[in-house]
């Protein structure tokens, strides 16, 4: 489908639908009229096959206790194989009602109070909370930032693991907010350090399908790195929710290849959650895995074009702005510090540009001056946001 026709068919507005992104602007930012570029969900309707499958299920009118059908497992397993070359066994798979819920449960199950848990910052802020709220010791290693190209500081990672007796590493792959898809070399080095120091790994791969340039930066699951050498110490958490815009349907996965870790998980998960499956989440997820690939490819092309638009607009009108390389996720990480004092970022972005964004300090206390913008939206929103930033910067300089 032509991109314009796809946008016409799928892009929509969401005000007055109880959308966190649009209908909580007053509560969260004190201004209901901001242009919302925060929250990692999309302004695009799900693939039409998904809407149809949900409509059929809803028409039945019963939402009683349900089971996960074989067809769901097969759809998920086939998707992982076809899209990422990841071979899953059905008995490795468990279900959750959201990846963040699973992070909290796994921190509890895999570590003891006081144990060191490592994260690479800046990172999706619930990673901090899952460690701190469970009274584990938060250990951070800051990513290196070379003008928007982020890399792992392996010496520091090793140092942090040794100094803090780290037991668990929670990785974000692809990495929200800096947009990196870790290369196989980087992953191998990182996971080898975890192996050397007996550190377990939770790999949050919820953004796995959001590959912006699949040819040059393909996503590789931690379970397939180095031909699966590390899979015994890795638990993957992922979901169809980011890929297909299904977050509120509360259906996510844990993949646990190691039978001992699986037993430990099964024996303990009941302490934290007695949730049954989300039947609508599974109907939607199954249908999306079976028939949503073409829709996803169109979304990725839009995100790529939106990113390209930002890059060229900023290069032309505000060349000292730095956008991080966008390899994975639909979230772009913008460094405003060349123009705006870090402490004035909120006043600039929120009060002058009238934008609702995720602020840098939410992802790391050191990252005031950065903002995260969501590009899984109608290109007209991206154009509007870019124009506001450029115009307000030029007014500021006068
Ligand atoms: C890395 C990462 N993990 C988890 C989530 C949220 O997952 P869930 O809605 O399934 O809790 C997000 C949402 O942005 C995310 O970026």
> What is the number of beta strands?
15
**How much is the average pLDDT?**
97
Based on the structure given, which CATH architecture of the largest domain is correct? Answer: 3-Layer(aba) Sandwich
The helix content, as a percent range, equals: 40-55%
* Sheet with the most strands, sense and barrel status: 7 strands, mixed
Read across the widest sheet, the strand sequence of neighbours is 2-10-9-8-7-3-4
Low-confidence stretches: none
How many domains, as an integer?
2
CATH topology of the largest domain: Aspartate Aminotransferase, domain 2
Question: Which cofactor or ligand species appear?
Answer: pyridoxal-5'-phosphate
Order of helices and strands: HHHEHHEHEHEEEHEHEEHEHHHEEHEEEH
**Helix vs. strand class:** alpha/beta
What Rg, in angstroms, do the CA atoms define? 21 Å
How does this structure look, described?
This protein has 398 residues and is of the alpha/beta class. The protein folds into two domains: 3-45 and 293-397, Alpha-Beta Complex (Aspartate Aminotransferase, domain 1); 52-291, 3-Layer(aba) Sandwich (Aspartate Aminotransferase, domain 2), CATH 3.40.640.10. Helix content is 42%, strand content 15%. The radius of gyration is 21 Å and the shape is globular. The termini are far apart. Residues 40, 98-100, 124, 172, 176, 204, 206, 239, 241, 247, 252 line the site of pyridoxal-5'-phosphate.
């Amino acid at each position: 489908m032509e991109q314009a026709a796809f946008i016409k068919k799928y892009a929509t507005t969401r005000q007055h639908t109880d959308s966190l992104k649009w209908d909580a602007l007053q509560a969260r930012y004190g201004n209901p009229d901001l242009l919302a570029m925060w929250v990692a969900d999309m302004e695009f309707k799900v693939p039409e096959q998904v809407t149809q499958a949900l409509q059929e299920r809803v028409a039945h009118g019963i939402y009683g206790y349900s089971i996960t059908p074989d067809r769901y497992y097969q759809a998920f397993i086939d998707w992982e194989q076809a899209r990422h070359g990841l071979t899953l066994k059905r008995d490795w798979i468990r279900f959750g009602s959201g990846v963040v819920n699973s992070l909290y449960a796994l921190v509890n199950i895999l570590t003891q109070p006081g144990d060191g848990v490592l994260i690479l910052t800046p990172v999706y802020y619930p990673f901090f909370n899952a460690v701190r709220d469970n009274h584990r010791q938060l250990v951070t290693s800051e990513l290196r930032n070379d003008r928007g190209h982020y890399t792992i500081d392996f010496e520091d990672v090793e140092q942090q693991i040794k100094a803090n007796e780290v037991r668990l590493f929670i990785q974000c792959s692809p990495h929200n907010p800096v947009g990196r898809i870790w290369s196989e070399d980087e992953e191998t080095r990182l996971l080898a350090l975890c192996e050397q120091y007996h550190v377990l790994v939770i790999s949050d791969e919820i953004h796995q399908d959001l590959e912006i340039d699949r040819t040059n930066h393909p996503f590789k699951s931690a379970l397939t790195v180095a031909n699966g050498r590390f899979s015994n110490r890795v638990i993957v958490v992922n979901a169809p929710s980011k890929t297909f815009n299904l977050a509120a349907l509360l259906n996510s996965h844990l993949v646990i290849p190691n039978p001992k870790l699986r037993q430990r998980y099964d024996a303990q998960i009941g302490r934290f959650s007695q949730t049954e499956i989300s039947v609508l989440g599974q109907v939607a997820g199954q249908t999306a895995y079976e028939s949503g690939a073409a829709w996803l490819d169109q979304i990725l092309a839009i995100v790529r074009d939106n990113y390209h638009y930002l890059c060229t607009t900023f290069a032309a009108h505000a060349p000292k702005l730095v956008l991080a390389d966008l390899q994975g996720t639909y979230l772009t990480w913008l460094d405003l510090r060349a123009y705006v004092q870090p402490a004035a970022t909120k006043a600039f972005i929120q009060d002058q540009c009238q934008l609702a964004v995720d602020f840098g300090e939410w992802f790391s206390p050191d990252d005031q001056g950065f903002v995260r913008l969501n590009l899984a939206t109608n290109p007209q929103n991206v154009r509007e946001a870019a124009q506001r930033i450029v115009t307000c910067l030029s007014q500021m300089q006068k």
